[in-house]
Specification:
about 250 residues, alpha/beta, Elongation Factor Tu (Ef-tu), domain 3, Rossmann fold, 2 domains, seven-stranded mixed sheet, 16 strands, about 20% helix
Length: about 250
């Protein structure tokens, strides 16, 4: 977990919207392009990020010590819609480090409806128990159901299979009034779309992609959509799943 000081960050009225991201790089760094990191939480003067050391730039971020500096953008992209706080029922599905923006969303839902009954459940999936860091969800009011591919924690199977099971348990009428919100790998979210888009009322996905500029100029993070190819950084990262999965582009099914 990386905690970074941001003067404009606020706990009561966050500057960032859940689902937005920040482009960041250690400063100084031998790399030129900042990396996109989903916001995990925001408080007075700080934001937190879950950083997975998968390459040299992210390993630089993981290796930072207190007092080190970073090169960071303000919050970017279109986050989850504000109307989610009024939804009858939400199922938040996070695969691996995709849980980060869903934690921020859960905290926002808790703050928006502090006296109302909890209307969301979090499904958190990983390959093994070591990949499901339950402590990153500390403090949320909703139930957290873990799943692991090898069965070492929680449901034995993927978070996609768990989401399908939970929706089927609700019954067709209740499932049809449920919104599924997901973040994870492209393959995971495409599988989720195919598994539950006919069960749930709607499915929203926050796409993960390598980004360079983060503001739609370089067009390095485009994705096929029903509107043609669009940059994820400015048109997303949050989309309706049926807008970006199983679409026809030039006669090709993608």
């Amino acid at each position: 977990m990386l905690r970074v000081e941001f003067e404009t960050a606020r706990a009561a009225s966050p500057e960032a919207v859940p689902g937005q991201f920040v482009q960041m790089l250690a400063a100084p760094s031998c790399h030129l392009v900042r990396r996109p990191m989903s916001i995990h939480d925001e408080g007075d003067g700080w934001r937190t990020f879950m950083v997975k050391p998968v390459g040299p730039a992210s390993r630089e971020l993981v290796g930072l010590a207190p007092g080190d500096r970073i090169d960071a953008s303000p919050p970017l992209g279109n986050g989850f819609p504000a109307g989610l706080a009024q939804e009858a029922r939400l199922v938040l599905v996070g695969g691996g480090f995709g849980i980060a923006p869903l934690h921020f969303l859960a905290r926002w839902l808790d703050a928006a409806t502090p006296a109302a009954p909890v209307r969301y459940t979090i499904l958190y999936g990983g390959r093994t128990a070591r990949d499901v860091e339950m402590d990153v969800l500390d403090g949320v009011r909703g139930a957290v159901l873990p799943s692991t591919d090898d069965g070492t924690l929680g449901f034995h199977g993927t978070c996609v299979a768990l989401a399908q099971r939970e929706l089927e348990k609700l019954g067709s009428a209740a499932a049809a009034s449920t919104t599924v919100v997901a973040c994870g790998s492209h393959a995971m979210m495409q599988a989720l779309h195919r598994a539950v888009h006919g069960l749930a009322g709607r499915v929203l996905v926050s796409l993960e992609e390598v980004m360079a500029c983060g503001v739609g100029v370089c067009m390095g993070c485009v994705t096929p959509s029903r509107r043609g190819y669009v940059p994820i950084c400015t048109e997303g990262p949050v989309f309706a799943s049926d807008e970006v999965f199983d679409v026809e582009m030039g006669g090709v099914h993608v």
